[in-house]
Amino acid sequence: MHYFYLRNPILSIRHCQTDAVWRAHVTECADNSLSNTFTFTEKYEMERCEAPVHFETIDWNAIPFGDEEWCYALNRHTFLLNNALTFAITRDRKYFDNWVRLFRDFNSHTKLDEMTAKRSWRSLECGIRVENYIRSIEIFSAMGMMDENLLEELTVFLRKHRDYLISEHTDFHRISNWGVLQDHGLFLSSLFLDDEESMKEAIRRLDEEMALQTLSDGMHWEQSSMYHAEVLHCAMDTVMIADRNSIAIPQSLKENTHALALALGRSLRPDGKCYLFGDSDEIDMRDMMASASVIFSDPSLSYYAGTIDDTRFYLSHELDTVLPEPKKPEEPLVFMKSSGNAFLTIGERSALRLHCGLTGSGHGHIDPLHFDLYSNGEVIITDTGRYTYTSTKERYALKGAYGHNTIILDGKEPVEMFDSWASTPPAEPVFTDALTNGAYSYLSAMHLGYSGTAVRRSILTLSNRFIIIADDIITDQEKSVEILFHLDEGTKIDGDGKRVHVAKNNAKITMLFMHGNAAVSSYPLSKRYNEMLESPLVTVRGTAMERSTFITVLALGSDDFEANLIPLKKPLTGFNVPKSYGMGLIIRDGEDEYSVALMSGEYPEKGFIIKAGNAEAFGRVFVRKNNEKTVVLKY
Fold first, then answer.
1. In CATH terms, are 175-329 and 333-499 the same topology?
2. Which CATH number is 333-499 given?
3. Cα separation values, 177 from 86, 102, 123, 209, Å
4. How many CB atoms lie within 10 A of CB 340?
5. What crossing angle do the helices spanning 148-167 and 196-213 adopt, rounded to 10°?
6. What is the edge-to-edge ordering of all strands in the sheet holding 341-346?
7. Where are the domains of the chain?
8. Which keywords are on file for this protein (predicted)?
9. SS3 label, residue 346
10. What tens digit of pLDDT does each residue of 540-555 get?
11. Which ranges of 359-426 does DSSP label H, i.e. alpha helix?
12. Are 617 and 597 spatial neighbours (Cβ–Cβ below 8 Å)?
């Protein structure tokens, strides 16, 4: 047998089983399947479901709860791999017998036809489940359980998958994550069958798909952290196994896979978890970064991996595997212009993300100008997740603009959803600024989703202590404005309509609203598919006319500070810049004082130099701390 995952699976599993949490999960899944009871709770489960479903006789095309995704999860056959792992852990033959029973039940009671091609034999599931069979066969072979009859059955079964996957390839698959996921299965099955021609075709497809789907900044075009990770796994797995078996693959496939890995690492929070970006669950992806660092011998990826503390790593890598020495990024800001994402590290345990870019596929959300805030090891301001793919009010609430930290005008979202996947054309994004200068960082983007109106969000960070958000609305008519801040579950809120204190464990922030009035309500939040929570929503309401700016100051840590608006002056004439074009801020924090200028546009009348408190410059956005040099962030 070819070298797929482990040379000595039994030794590796013996090491893995010392992880009590992992062992409990694997054995529980296997035990449930003994009685035809199924849940889907794998770490990277695409459609998680903790509610158990029991069958007297398994219906492989069943759709419980009215959600087709349950059927898809069933037919990925992760429960088979868990039976194989549990057999290796316990040496109890009932798990091997159960594996064979379930495999034969599926093989004898399903056939590929027009109906099953949309359920139990959907091509995506066919591609995914091949890996679970290959891993199981590797384990059983090492344990001497793979007799000739069973091996022949599995060979015929995998040949059927190869033939179907070869035939099921359209332009849809070329651009969709489906293509990568199912052609990964084609690669594995072809290698298992020693079918060189089909294997070459799988590699050709994967190379083309990765070239089409990987943006120049390394992000996957569908704008979802989770599907980015799924595509990365399959591409990376192909690169790894090809290398182990001396199979030549195009350099472009390696490079695009490497780029995807780097982009995912750069997009993770400081705790290694992904943001709830697009259709994503909250998942710790450091194990994937660890695999990538080994496959590509990349110290940057080692930094995002941290240490190897996830047992799953050792199900694909030998026990003596060592990560490259980690290399910390030199800059705190990563700007991914092609996808419209900016990720800013604030100190050691805080980070901010701003998105204004491609919507991507149906897995992308209506989230122009959305931002997330992670502070002192805690999620504070967050996306609301996905929950379901069914066309329900929950789907619209979480996927739509109201489920994001953005700006809503006249109670209407900038893009209208038709159903779970389709919508009117996306709001045109324009991400103009992303830079760091010493202790200050500046991000600015806008979208054109409202006819006759431009909506711009600018974010200025000061010394890892303050975040200033300036939301500009430039319009030809009066607009009602809602500015949304979705807080994570478990946050405690106190304050009035102008100053709100937010606390979660050791993280504290103060939200100071310089314009409009804030109100607190609740909103649904989902960190995992099929799991719904409630979380606080802070909404700032006001009115915009012609040119209006709404400023919010976020203070990380102590609430002992003052912030006041001041007019911007022209020193040449003493003229005050109209508030519609710009305002200044004075922030006093202990012994420190910041003078800040924020202009929404050029205003050359009566002089070109602008004065904000103790700061002067020719520029639209600039800062001066105490008597230090004035720093211009936008001219």
1. no
2. 2.70.98.70
3. 31, 28, 12, 8
4. 24
5. 50
6. 333-336, 341-346, 350-355, 370-375, 378-381
7. 1-168, 175-329, 333-499, 560-635
8. Lyase, Periplasm, Signal
9. strand
10. 999 999 999 999 999 9
11. 393-399
12. yes
Rounded distance between C-alpha atoms, residue 195 and residue 186, angstroms: 10
- How far is C-alpha 460 from the geometric centre of its chain's CA atoms? 24
Q: Angle 93-109/78-90 helices, nearest 10 degrees?
A: 160
Mean pLDDT of 492-499: 93
Cα–Cα dist 465/470, whole Å: 17
* Confidence check: pLDDT of 353 > 90: yes
> What are 299's two structure tokens?
């110290």
Residue appearing with tokens 């009859």:
149
Architecture of the domain spanning 1-168:
Alpha/alpha barrel (1.50)
pTM: 0.97
Q: Is 39 helix (H, G, I), strand (E, B) or coil?
A: strand
Upper half-sphere CA count for residue 629 (Cβ side, 13 Å): 7
Nearest to 600, CA basis, from 584, 581, 619, 579:
581
Residue 392 tokens, joined = 């329900």
CATH code given to domain 175-329: 1.50.10.100
What pLDDT does 492 receive? 97
7: its two tokens: 């040379």
Cα 585 to chain centroid distance, Å, stands at 34
| CA distance to 568, 576, 610, per residue, from 606 (Å) | 12, 9, 10
pLDDT of residue 496: 84
- How does 133-163 read in b/e, with b if 16+ C-beta sit within 10 Å? bbbbbbbbebbebbeeebeeebeebbbbbbe
Identify the CA nearest to 227 among candidates 44, 105, 455, 89.
44
Q: How far is CA 43 from the centre of its chain?
A: 14
**For 613, phi and psi rounded to 5 degrees?**
60, -115
Which two structure tokens, joined as six digits, stand for 445? 């983007």
Give the DSSP letter of residue 273: B
Which token pair is 294? Answer: 């080994």
Residue 307 has a pLDDT of: 86
CB 65 within 8 A of CB 334: no
- Mean pLDDT throughout 422-440? 98
Q: CA 52, CA 66: separation in Å to the nearest integer?
A: 15
The amino acid sitting at 122 is R
Q: Which of 343, 353, 407, 342 is nearest to 380 (CA)?
A: 353
Q: How far is CA 43 from CA 229, 281, 471, 528, 625, in A?
A: 12, 10, 38, 10, 46
| Distance in angstroms (rounded) separating the CA atoms of residues 453 and 450 | 5
Give the model's pLDDT for residue 268.
98
Backbone Cα Rg of the chain: 27
pLDDT digits (tens, 9 = 90+) for 515-526: 999 999 999 999
Task: Give the pLDDT score at 309.
Answer: 82
